[in-house]
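The methods section describes the discrete structure representation at length, but only in general terms. The central task, working out the structure tokens from the amino acid sequence alone, is never made concrete. Nothing conveys this as quickly as seeing an actual entry. For illustration, here is how one protein appears when written out as sequence plus structure tokens:
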Amino acid sequence: MPELKDYRAQLDKIDEQLVKLFHERLQITGNIGRFKKEHDLPVLDEKREEEKLNAVAALCVEPSEAEGVKELFKTIMKVSRDNQEKIIKR
């Protein structure tokens, strides 16, 4: 039977992957921020964000996880918007 440390080691591996993917996402949102700056577009696109939240919620294997996934992506998108705002203000 697995020990608590084994479960935590599994989580550590997943967390490492999440951090790498988050870094990649921020690189791309930075590119989007530069594009928006060049084309004088607003950072926030509420319609796009709502569509994205619904799309990621639909990916959930367990419907009970959908709200948690939406909350996670709301935070991710806020950090991405903040990143874009910094780029635009430069």
Notes: Helices lie at 4-38, 46-58, 66-89. The radius of gyration is 16 Å.
